[in-house]
Design a protein that fits this description.
The complex is a heterodimer. Chain A is an alpha+beta fold. Chain A has helices at about 1-5, 10-15, 25-30, 30-40, 160-170, 195-200, 205-210, 230-255, 360-385, 400-415, and strands at about 45-50, 60-65, 70-75, 80-85, 100, 105, 115, 120, 140-145, 150, 180-190, 260-265, 270-275, 310-315, 315-320, 325-335, 340-350. Residues about 260-275 of chain B have low confidence and may be disordered. Classes of the chains: A alpha+beta, B alpha/beta. Chains A and B meet through loops of A and loops of B. Chain A: Keywords: 2Fe-2S, Dioxygenase, Iron, Iron-sulfur, Metal-binding, Oxidoreductase.
Chain lengths: ~425, ~375
Amino acid sequence: MLDVVQTPLKSLIARRRPGYTLEAPFYTSPQILQTDLDLIFGHHWIYVGVEPDVPEPGDVMVVDIGANSVLIVRDDDLGVKAFHNVCRHRGARLVHEPKTTVGNLVCGYHQWTYNLEGKLVHADHMGKDFDPGCHGLKPVHLRSLAGLLFICLSDDPPADFDEMAAVMTPYIAPHDIANCKVIHQSDLIELGNWKLTMENNRECYHCSANHPELTIPLFAYGFGFSPDSVDETELKQAQRYEQMVCDLGAQWEADGLPSREVDRLDDMVTGYRTQRLPIDRDGESQTIDTKVASKKLLGQFTNSKLGGLSFWTQPNSWHHFMSDHIVTFSVIPLDAERTLLRTKWLVHKDAVEGVDYDLENVIGVWVATNDQDGTLVGWAQAGARSQAYEPGPYSPYTEMLVDKFCNWYIGRLNALLPR
Amino acid sequence: MGHPDPVAPHLAQGLAPWNADEDDILVCRQVRAETADVKSFIFAARTPRLFHYRPGQFLTFDFEIGGETVNRCYTISSAPTRPHLVSITVKRVPGGPVSNWLHDHMAPGREIRATGPMGEFSTSTHPAPKYLFLSGGSGITPLMSMARSHHDLALPVDITFVHSARSPADIIFRDELDLMGRNLPGFRAISICEADSPGERWGGFRGRLSLDALSVIAPDFRTREIFTCGPAPYMAAVRGILGQAGFDMDRYHEESFDFGTLTGAEDTATAVAVAAPGLSYRVEFTKSRRVIDCPADKHILDAAREAGMRLPSSCTKGLCGTCKSKIVSGKVEMKHAGGIRQREIDMGLALICCSKPLGDLVIER
């Protein structure tokens, strides 16, 4: 009887094996992708960009998530607001460019005009009985976490965002996102399900073989290793890394920079993790020579050796904050087997290209790394389509965070699916 | 003998008034930092002169910026009761060509061309027994001139001055407002802040001006003559509050704080607005290859429509931006309602539904 009343998705959820990859339909089924859009991307805080994406009053950014298009605007009081990008007249999309600047928000179809508060301020030919007050733009919940913009499409957004924000603000605020500018954005379409993009991000098992650039600044040991699988040299490296975590961490904390690990990846609705990770060699930045790529340090920093503060959120983002620049990543599904990875690079707003920084040097490591990761995700997707695919085991030493991502995902689907 | 007294020439008897028709050059005497992004620029005539003006009036300056002459009007923040100098107080606007130029380049000794004073926004023009001054941000300047005048004359006054600022660190003339409050029994200055500043928790009124806040601060506001100056959205909000309260708008006066963005200014007589009646300009449209005459007191869109042209437009109130056009040459006077950004105006765009010609024009339409 039970099998008859359960939907296939519920069965898949019920028989998910912890510590193992998900079953193939989670990576290939258009129906499950639609459920992901409805329940995961429709009910959680989704990272979409940074305050410097809309630095001045009238600046607008458009973010599309599934069928929903959202406007993010800077208003005249310098606040940031989000609205559905849908005219209240006949539903036409209001803004078509990814970024633009407007006086008011005007629908190109019949010139219904909304101010930056979303209020309808002009609509011709609608007669005396028409009440513009009932036809304002529909707001979308938006929160800025020290300058990182998260939206929630649900009317009832997860309340534990505040808990995350309270913990994370002291970590992120010193990097002073408000006084940064976005110097480059890349929109990479990976040929894989969004969960494969996320899973790939949550481990560094693949790093040494695939990321020649990233593994210059980054220690793969930061994400764990099996003591049985490393030789003496590697073990020494790992011990050196552990010592650096200890010594540098204490020094950063003493300097007022929170650094220690917090991991709430699968025990909160708004799951997240953070840690300030040591950087190898010169220890300054995620660059090919591990030195700062921008001479203008962020915020009030005078010390360039601040490692890389990493911040991961469920379901769709990760971020690296260095002393000189910031890299942020947003993951948005396009369909079951294609995913948008949107990367933004930020430096101090007063840094001048060619004088204080060389663009290629700032973005080099992550442009190369993203490209390599895109290939790996494509391989995983191709394999998931095969009849031979079956869930395989995660490494208990290097893939714990992948497992936590899947735990969170399955847990959230289970909680939100109609009974 | 010895050193000559530098003050004496300025206090000489029978000092002539400054007259822009005779000498329109002012010399910067001093630059004062009022807040992190607001500075006062203090000017004198080239030879000692006295400045006569009504508190609340403005001067029109010719700025030479990047090889171009840019006209801007700034209300005077100093008081005519201290006539030897005249000052303006300017907030740095991101991307604002003139405010940034002033902040970055105006320095003691530098000369600038100015005409005026002009304007009807003054307690002298609308005398009343009780005043309510409402200001937002750098819109404080004309009201400061009025307040300083009343203070300096030490006559009995009844003035409530409510200033809205982003944070306590952004309250312009904060110490001086406090001082005037201590000196004058009938003068009350209250600030409203939206947020704390990094160095100070704000213990006063928080948020924005609202009917509730106003009713607490000045319960008798309906009996006062009201003068308002600030950014366009601020003044729109004030009009909304007073409308809600049923205030008699005959006793309401407002001034756009920056004549570069003439917005919703109702009770302002500006230099550019006083065009001679009957004057008309030639307006050429490049794309439609039409040339029309546009009277100086008519909106360009109206003139074009009357001439049979069908140009894109919708709200005709400066709101929607549908009629946004590039002004290829010539200058216009524009009173928009939010349909265009200052950055666009700086790029030479204008809303022709709410723009009047100030000379012959070529418009890309």
